[in-house]
Design a protein that fits this description.
The chain has about 425 residues and is mainly α. The protein has a single domain (about 1-410), classed as Growth Hormone, Chain: A (Up-down Bundle), CATH 1.20.1250. About 85% of the residues lie in helices and about 0% in strands. The chain is built from 15 helices and no strands. Helix 6 packs antiparallel against helix 11. The longest helix has about 50 residues, at about 350-400. GO terms for molecular function: transmembrane transporter activity. Keywords: Membrane, Transmembrane, Transmembrane helix. It comes from Acidovorax temperans. InterPro entries: MFS, MFS_ArsJ, MFS_trans_sf.
Length: about 425
């Protein structure tokens, strides 16, 4: 158990370093190109390939991590992120707008691949280290997943703040070089500290086998698509543009989003204390997923009504509503992240997790695209209605999650 805890700590620390720079990158790109006069929809477009690349990266990354080992894929993910930063740093201010956008989208695509390769490898490592400890303690697994996910998102919030500070002090190119250097140190630590073959197993031999997941993982994947689409459909463009239109400056908007993300991460880490746990790991956790998805759907419904009625002090109603959304969303996300590992088999955990997070990336892609379109068509109201519809679908998908899974099925997966 001590050895497993050590590997878990190393993987978590490596992912912290990665997420810190990934959050800073998002702020760097948003602030830099906003300052250059790019529209909100164009800013959303800059991240589309970043999100789309993650769909394929998760599927392939899970398969590669099973075949070649989690440590190797974590190494590839960190190296790819360093490459993405280097490509982005070559952006030339004298280029045309079209050339600049194309270059940034390409670099963001590379970083999108890096993010999801690193995420799949890191979260798979949790399942593998728990299995290696030979202590199938679902309570411990839930705690590890919740702390990993929550601390990661808190680190992303700090990254948002770091990105603004670096852009102001070092400029766009200097910030990217510094972050690439930080990741090189993290990469060195991973290579010298983790077992090379950790998580290596017999990978699927066909696409049919790769996609033939058990009912639990399939249901969670469907729920994950609409869950994260429901967040990003109003969070990526709708919230920052709405707050800016209410008189907030960009520093206030960026600071608020950073604080929201940090708070959201802290709630994720505390989820095991909020959700009652069961001995079998599913009988109370699955009903909790159903309950919290239903509660979450009520938030954008209520906010949409407030926007439609144009209630007094609307901006503060939205701020409070976003806080409530963050709490319910954090619990949902944490429970889902635990359940995918509870349903996954330990032999092909990386493949199962990769499949699940490919759905996550698809949801982010859909949410990012629809965020720009819906806000352009009908403002914050349309974005909130889109979020509410997706969350109703999420709740319906959780109704089909199995409360019991045969171990024979898990072993086969």
């Amino acid at each position: 158990m001590q050895h497993a805890a050590r590997n878990y700590a190393i993987v978590t620390a490596a992912y912290w370093g990665f997420t810190l720079t990934d959050g800073a990158l998002r702020m760097l790109v948003l602030l830099h190109f906003y300052r250059l006069g790019y529209s909100p929809f164009t800013l959303a477009f800059l991240f589309l390939l970043y999100e789309a690349a993650g769909i394929l990266a998760n599927l392939i990354g899970g398969w590669l991590a099973t075949r070649y080992g989690i440590t190797r894929m974590l190494t590839v993910g960190l190296t790819t992120q360093i490459l993405g930063f280097s490509v982005l740093s070559m952006l030339n201010p004298t280029w045309t707008v079209a050339m600049s956008v194309a270059w940034v989208v390409l670099a963001q695509g590379i970083c999108g691949v890096a993010k999801d390769l690193t995420k799949t490898a890191s979260k798979s490592a949790i399942k593998v280290t728990q299995a290696a400890a030979k202590e199938q303690d679902n309570g411990q697994l839930f705690k590890w997943v919740a702390w990993f996910t929550g601390s990661k998102n808190a680190m992303k919030g700090f990254g948002f703040f770091l990105g603004g500070v670096l852009l102001q002090t070092l400029g766009f190119q200097g910030s990217l070089w510094l972050m690439a250097g930080l990741l090189a140190v993290v990469l060195l630590g991973v290579v010298t500290s983790l077992p090379t073959m950790m998580g290596k197993s017999k990978a699927s031999k066909s696409a049919k086998e790769l996609f033939a997941k058990n009912a639990g993982i399939n249901g969670l994947a469907a729920a994950r698509v609409v869950l994260f689409g429901a967040r990003d459909v109003w969070f990526v463009v709708g919230v920052p543009v709405f707050l800016y239109s209410q008189g907030w400056n960009f520093t206030m908007v960026g600071g608020f989003l950073a604080a929201w993300t940090i708070g959201y991460g802290l709630v994720q880490a505390l989820a095991p204390n909020i959700v009652k746990r069961s001995a079998d790991g599913l009988s109370t956790e699955v009903p909790a997923a159903r309950l919290w998805s239903a509660l979450l759907a009520l938030v954008p419904m209520g906010l949409a009504a407030a926007v439609l009625l144009d209630v007094p002090h609307l901006q503060w109603v939205v701020v409070v509503g976003l806080g409530l959304f963050g709490v319910a969303f954090a619990v949902n996300s944490s429970v889902h992240s635990y359940l995918v590992l509870a349903y996954a088999g330990s032999e092909k955990a990386a493949e199962d997790v990769g499949f699940y997070y490919a759905a996550n990336a698809l949801g982010r892609f859909m949410g990012t695209l629809m965020s720009g379109l819906l806000y352009q068509w009908g403002g914050l109201l349309y974005a909130l209605l889109g979020s509410a519809l997706m969350l109703v679908l999420c709740w319906l998908f959780t109704l089909y999650l199995p409360v019991k899974v045969e171990r024979a099925v898990l072993a086969a997966s």
